[in-house]
Amino acid sequence: MLRGYLSGPVQPVEIPIPMTATTAVVHLSNVRLEYGGRAVLRGINLSVAKGSMTAVLGPSGSGKSTLLAAITGELVPAQGQVEVFGQPVPRDARGLLAMRKRLGVLLQGNGLLTDLTVLENVALPLRAHSGLPAAEIQARALAKLEAVGLAAAADRFPRELSGGMARRAALARALALDPPLLLCDEPLTGLDPIASGVVMSLLRQLNQSLGLTCIVVSHHVRETLPVCDQAVVVANGGLAFDGTPEALQASQDPLLRQFLDGSPHGPIAFDDVTGQRAA
């Protein structure tokens, strides 16, 4: 499945940013994240190693996507520092653009443009940022589709795809600029168990074959943990756990057990009316 991605004339688009082999791709130091003056996450210390696959787990409304927003520079921390590729996340537009060209983002809703074919969707970032000739852009886009098993669907429109196919098409687009870091926001939402397994298996293949660093935000514990190297649990305004998936599953901490076992009773409080995590 990865053959077309790894061979042939396709070469990565490189944007040099200093980073040693021992530098964490993502590092957060004592980070506090707020919306409208209200703290969503506080005291966050987290490192994501180069080439690893990290699961960021937690109940709905706990701040998982907020953590991604800080990594991409969409949300500026009220306190602390976020580093990506060994450098603080830029505040200026030019610096942010340069950094984001090295980030692949797989959106929860896919974000595919309905009036473009699958191939045109995947080619869009290349047209916007690479400056390559049209023929090479098409070759690269086709290689990404082959990498996710969708070369035969290149001329289809998003409405003609199943949920799992649409998610893989969005993944191909996220990989268009050959980013060393891939951020996935709830990649299994709306997928059946088989499609979920295909997507997570594909992410692991890309992670291992390409040395791609992946951060996967999810509340699907069963499908996500087996393919990850690092597990992080976000709950009650902070990090409740940071370690290996095996250590997480073996934990007897009441908060972690409530989340892993899906119990309605425990330290993670929910509002009786909204069903969301209580502030």
Question: Which properties best describe this structure?
Answer:
Rossmann fold; 279 residues; ATP hydrolysis activity; 6-stranded mixed β-sheet; 10 helices; 4-stranded antiparallel β-sheet; 34% helix; alpha/beta; 10 strands; globular; disordered N terminus
Kindly report the spatial arrangement of strands forming the biggest sheet.
6-7-8-3-9-10
Largest sheet: 6 strands, mixed
Distance between the termini: 45 Å
Mean pLDDT: 85
CATH class wording: Alpha Beta
How many domains? The number is: 1
Beta strands, count: 10
Low-confidence stretches: 1-22, 272-279
As a percent range, the share of strand residues is: 15-25%
| Secondary structural class | alpha/beta
General form: globular
Question: Tally the helices: what do you get?
Answer: 10
What is the chain-wise order of helices and strands? HEEEHEEHEHHHEHEHEEHH
CATH architecture: 3-Layer(aba) Sandwich
Domain ABC transporter: 26-261
GO molecular function: ATP binding; ATP hydrolysis activity
Organism: Thermomonas hydrothermalis
InterPro entries: AAA+_ATPase, ABC_transporter-like_ATP-bd, ABC_transporter-like_CS, P-loop_NTPase
Task: Produce a short descriptive summary.
Helix content is 34%, strand content 22%. With 279 residues, it is an alpha/beta fold.
Describe the structure.
By secondary structure, the protein is an alpha/beta fold. It has one domain: 3-Layer(aba) Sandwich (Rossmann fold). Helices cover 34% and strands 22% of the residues. It contains ten helices and ten strands. It has helices at residues 3-6, 64-72, 93-100, 118-129, 134-147, 163-174, 193-210, 221-224, 245-250, 254-261; strands at residues 26-35, 38-48, 53-57, 79-84, 87-88, 103-106, 181-185, 213-218, 230-235, 238-243. It has a six-stranded mixed sheet with strand order 6-7-8-3-9-10, sandwiched between helices. Strands 2-1-4-5 form a four-stranded antiparallel sheet, covered by helices on one side. It comes from Thermomonas hydrothermalis. Residues 26-261 form the ABC transporter domain. Keywords: ATP-binding, Nucleotide-binding, Transport. This is Phospholipid/cholesterol/gamma-HCH transport system ATP-binding protein.
